[in-house]
Specification:
Strand content: 5-15%
Number of domains: 1
Organism: Streptococcus pneumoniae
Number of helices: 4
GO biological process, one term: cell division
Keywords: Cell cycle, Cell division
Strand order of the largest sheet: 1-2
InterPro entries: ATPase_NBD
Number of strands: 2
Radius of gyration: 17 Å
Protein name: Cell division protein FtsA
Order of helices and strands: HEHEHH
């Protein structure tokens, strides 16, 4: 049923978030100001922001791109990578190729 599936997904996501929290704690990254910004398709699951706030204990917000036609967090990483790639110069590309 839908309720059973929802319980399974919720438990798995909480487990994943707890593993992420352990790594963020280890690196002391949760002490940084600003909180956490969720992007990607899973970020729009109902209750995701609230669950992340519960697990991480910091402010969590959902990022929604403001480009017309793609106002969906699932596209956020693709948009940002495209913007980043567009800003690379030939020197950057050569330097990365040498590494």
């Amino acid at each position: 049923t839908e309720a059973y599936l929802s319980e399974i997904i919720s438990a798995r996501i909480k487990h994943i978030l707890e593993q992420i929290k352990q790594e963020l704690d280890r690196r002391r990254l949760l002490d940084l100001p600003g909180g956490i910004v969720l992007i990607g398709g899973n970020a729009i699951l109902p209750g995701m922001v609230e669950l992340a706030q519960e697990v991480f204990g910091v402010r969590v917000k959902l990022y929604v791109p403001n480009q017309v036609g793609i106002r969906n967090p699932a596209f956020a990483h693709v948009i940002r990578l495209s913007e980043f790639a567009g800003q690379l110069t030939e020197v950057n590309l050569l330097a990365q190729g040498a590494i």
